[in-house]
Amino acid sequence: MPVGVMNWRTYLAWTLGLSMALVGPFLSLLTLPAGADGMLLVVTPPWRDALAVIGDAGGRPIGPEASVLGQFATSDTPDFPDRLRAAGAWVVLDGEAISALCGWEVT
Q: Are the C-beta atoms of residues 71 and 54 closer than 8 Å to each other?
Protein backbone atom coordinates (compact mmCIF):
# COMPACT_ATOMS: atom_id res chain seq x y z
CA MET A 1 0.00 0.00 0.00
CA PRO A 2 1.43 3.42 -0.92
CA VAL A 3 2.36 5.84 1.83
CA GLY A 4 -0.40 8.40 2.39
CA VAL A 5 -3.23 6.11 1.32
CA MET A 6 -5.42 5.09 4.22
CA ASN A 7 -7.30 1.81 4.07
CA TRP A 8 -11.05 1.96 4.58
CA ARG A 9 -10.96 0.54 8.11
CA THR A 10 -8.59 3.22 9.35
CA TYR A 11 -10.64 5.90 7.61
CA LEU A 12 -13.85 4.55 9.16
CA ALA A 13 -12.29 4.41 12.64
CA TRP A 14 -11.09 8.02 12.38
CA THR A 15 -14.45 9.21 11.04
CA LEU A 16 -16.44 7.49 13.79
CA GLY A 17 -14.04 8.64 16.49
CA LEU A 18 -14.15 12.28 15.42
CA SER A 19 -17.92 12.16 15.01
CA MET A 20 -18.39 10.81 18.53
CA ALA A 21 -16.02 13.40 19.96
CA LEU A 22 -17.85 16.27 18.29
CA VAL A 23 -21.44 15.09 18.65
CA GLY A 24 -21.23 13.47 22.10
CA PRO A 25 -21.44 16.67 24.16
CA PHE A 26 -24.47 17.86 22.20
CA LEU A 27 -26.26 14.54 22.67
CA SER A 28 -25.95 14.90 26.43
CA LEU A 29 -27.97 18.12 26.19
CA LEU A 30 -30.89 16.17 24.75
CA THR A 31 -31.19 14.14 27.95
CA LEU A 32 -31.87 17.22 30.08
CA PRO A 33 -35.50 17.10 31.20
CA ALA A 34 -37.54 20.10 30.15
CA GLY A 35 -39.58 21.14 33.16
CA ALA A 36 -42.89 22.86 32.59
CA ASP A 37 -42.02 25.78 34.83
CA GLY A 38 -39.15 28.15 34.23
CA MET A 39 -37.30 28.94 31.07
CA LEU A 40 -37.18 26.54 28.12
CA LEU A 41 -35.07 26.55 24.98
CA VAL A 42 -37.29 25.89 21.98
CA VAL A 43 -35.47 24.57 18.90
CA THR A 44 -37.50 24.87 15.70
CA PRO A 45 -36.82 24.05 12.05
CA PRO A 46 -35.39 26.99 10.09
CA TRP A 47 -38.50 27.22 7.91
CA ARG A 48 -40.78 27.70 10.95
CA ASP A 49 -41.13 30.93 12.91
CA ALA A 50 -40.08 30.19 16.51
CA LEU A 51 -42.23 33.02 17.87
CA ALA A 52 -45.30 31.59 16.11
CA VAL A 53 -44.61 28.11 17.52
CA ILE A 54 -44.28 29.55 21.02
CA GLY A 55 -47.46 31.59 20.61
CA ASP A 56 -49.40 28.60 19.26
CA ALA A 57 -48.34 26.62 22.34
CA GLY A 58 -49.59 29.33 24.69
CA GLY A 59 -46.23 30.70 25.74
CA ARG A 60 -44.24 33.90 25.49
CA PRO A 61 -40.67 34.47 24.32
CA ILE A 62 -37.91 35.52 26.72
CA GLY A 63 -35.16 37.87 25.68
CA PRO A 64 -34.85 40.43 22.94
CA GLU A 65 -33.08 38.20 20.41
CA ALA A 66 -33.52 34.79 18.86
CA SER A 67 -31.18 32.57 16.88
CA VAL A 68 -32.02 30.92 13.60
CA LEU A 69 -33.10 27.68 15.26
CA GLY A 70 -33.92 28.52 18.87
CA GLN A 71 -35.65 30.88 21.25
CA PHE A 72 -36.01 30.95 25.02
CA ALA A 73 -39.62 30.84 26.17
CA THR A 74 -41.81 30.38 29.23
CA SER A 75 -45.44 29.73 30.07
CA ASP A 76 -47.70 29.16 33.06
CA THR A 77 -49.25 26.14 31.33
CA PRO A 78 -48.16 22.86 32.99
CA ASP A 79 -47.98 20.91 29.70
CA PHE A 80 -46.06 23.63 27.85
CA PRO A 81 -43.21 21.36 26.59
CA ASP A 82 -45.73 18.92 25.08
CA ARG A 83 -47.68 21.77 23.51
CA LEU A 84 -44.47 23.16 21.98
CA ARG A 85 -43.68 19.81 20.39
CA ALA A 86 -47.22 19.57 19.05
CA ALA A 87 -46.92 23.10 17.61
CA GLY A 88 -43.82 22.13 15.61
CA ALA A 89 -40.77 22.41 17.87
CA TRP A 90 -38.02 19.91 17.12
CA VAL A 91 -36.54 19.88 20.63
CA VAL A 92 -37.50 21.46 23.96
CA LEU A 93 -34.66 21.75 26.49
CA ASP A 94 -34.23 23.12 30.00
CA GLY A 95 -33.34 26.74 29.27
CA GLU A 96 -31.84 27.43 32.68
CA ALA A 97 -29.38 24.52 32.34
CA ILE A 98 -28.45 25.62 28.81
CA SER A 99 -27.90 29.21 29.90
CA ALA A 100 -25.70 28.03 32.79
CA LEU A 101 -23.61 25.97 30.36
CA CYS A 102 -23.18 29.06 28.18
CA GLY A 103 -22.15 31.18 31.17
CA TRP A 104 -25.27 33.33 31.25
CA GLU A 105 -26.90 34.27 34.53
CA VAL A 106 -30.69 34.29 34.59
CA THR A 107 -32.02 37.13 36.71
A: yes
